[in-house]
Amino acid sequence: MLLPQENISLKDLNTFGINAQARYYVRINSEETLRDLLLCKTIQPLPKLVLGGGSNLLFLNDFPGIVLHMATTGVATIRETKADVWVKANAGVNWHALVLHCVAQGYAGIENLSLIPGTVGAAPMQNIGAYGVTFSEVFDSLEAMEVCSGKISHFSKEDCSFGYRESIFKKELYGQYIILNVTLKLPKQPAFQTDYGAIQRTLAAMHVETLSIKAISDSVIKIRQSKLPNPKRLGNAGSFFKNPTIVQSQFLQLKKLYPDMPGYPQEDAQIKVPAAWLIEQCGWKGQRKGAVGVHKDQPLVLVNYGGGRGQEIYQLAQAIQQSVQTRFGIPICPEVNIIQCCSSFEN
C-alpha cells in the first residue's frame, strides 16, 4: 500500500493559497490505491478530505486527518450514435482541459462551461454551471467508491438529485462516496446558448461571422478572463457566494425600493437575484481588509492578496452576508466549501 506523506503544506493545492497543513497526504493515481487506503484500519478513523483542483474550498485551519488528492487521468469516447457521443473522464482530469478536448472533437454541450476551474470529480458534486448551461444537462452517469466499504456504485442522473449548485453528494450522501469518473452525453449537433451575459456582445467584438462551439468557448474564456482574477496571480476561489432565489412577492416589494434590481424568473416561480449586485449595493466591491478583500471588478470574488488566513476570508464573508441580510432581507450562502477539521469532499 502507498504510504501517506506526513505534515504536508497545502498552500499550492488550493487556489486561495492558504498555507494550511495536512497531517497526512496521498496522491491518488488509481482506484486500487484509493480502495487500499479506505480499507486500511489505521486510516479508517481519520477525518478525510478529498481534494481535486482545490478551487472550491477555504481552509480555516490545518487539516488533522488525511488528504486524498484525486489525480486519476484519462478521457475516452465510449459510445457513439449519429446524434450523440458519450465521453468518460476520470475524476482527476482538469475540467477546462476536458472542455477543450470536446470542443476540438466537435462535441457540443459544454462549451459555455469553459474555463471553470477544478476537476471533473467536482463537477457533479457542485452541479457546475455558467452562461446559461448547467452540468446536469449533459450528465449521463458516474461511478463512485463507497468510503466505508471500497465498493464501486453506479449513479444515474436521477440518482444524483441535481439542484442549483447541489447534488446528492453534498446532501444525503455527503462524505459517503468518492467520485471516480463521470460520463457525459454530448450532442454532435450544437444548440447554441448565446443569450446569457455578454456572449453575444463578445462574439460581435471578436468579429465572429459563423457561429461555432469553438467561437462560443473562446468568447466565454475571454469574458471570464476579463472578469475573474487568475488564482496563480491573486488567490481566489472564483464565485464565493451562490445567487439567492426569493419569492416573487418579496422581489416586487424590493423592486419598488430598488428599481434597478435585476431578477431572473425560475421554474419554481421564484426569482433569482444576482449576489454580485447585492454585494456591490452594500458597498463591498473593491474593499480590502488587511491581506484579504473583495475583488475590484467582481464583488462575488473574495481574494487573498498574499499571506491571508482562511479565518480572515471567512470573517469577511460573514460580514458581507450580514450586510446583505440587513439591507435586503436576503440570505446569501457560500458556494465555496468551508474546511474546518471534519471530513470533507471537494473532488
CATH topology category name of the largest domain = Uridine Diphospho-n-acetylenolpyruvylglucosamine Reductase, domain 3
| Separation, N- and C-terminal Cα atoms | 22 Å
Provide the β-strand percentage band.
25-35%
The radius of gyration computed from the alpha-carbon positions, rounded to a whole number of angstroms, is: 20 Å
What composes the largest sheet? 5 strands, mixed
Low-confidence stretches: none
Quickly count the helices: 9
The top-level CATH class of the largest domain is Alpha Beta
Secondary structure category = alpha+beta
Order of helix and strand elements from N to C terminus: EEHEEEEEHHEEEEHEHHEEHEEHEEEHEE
Average pLDDT reading: 94
Q: Which strands sit side by side, in order, in the main sheet? A: 1-2-5-3-21
How many discrete structural domains? 3
Fraction in helix: 25-40%
Q: In one word, what is the shape?
A: globular
The number of E-state strands comes to 21
**CATH second-level architecture of the largest domain:** 2-Layer Sandwich
How does this model look, in words?
This protein is of the alpha+beta class and 347 residues long. The chain folds into three domains: 73 residues, Uridine Diphospho-n-acetylenolpyruvylglucosamine Reductase, domain 2; 152 residues, Uridine Diphospho-n-acetylenolpyruvylglucosamine Reductase, domain 3 (2-Layer Sandwich), CATH 3.30.465.10; 89 residues, UDP-N-acetylenolpyruvoylglucosamine reductase, C-terminal domain (Uridine Diphospho-n-acetylenolpyruvylglucosamine Reductase, domain 1, Alpha-Beta Complex). It has nine helices and 21 strands. A five-stranded mixed β-sheet has the order 1-2-5-3-21. It is globular and about 60 Å long. The two termini are 22 Å apart. The mean pLDDT is 94.
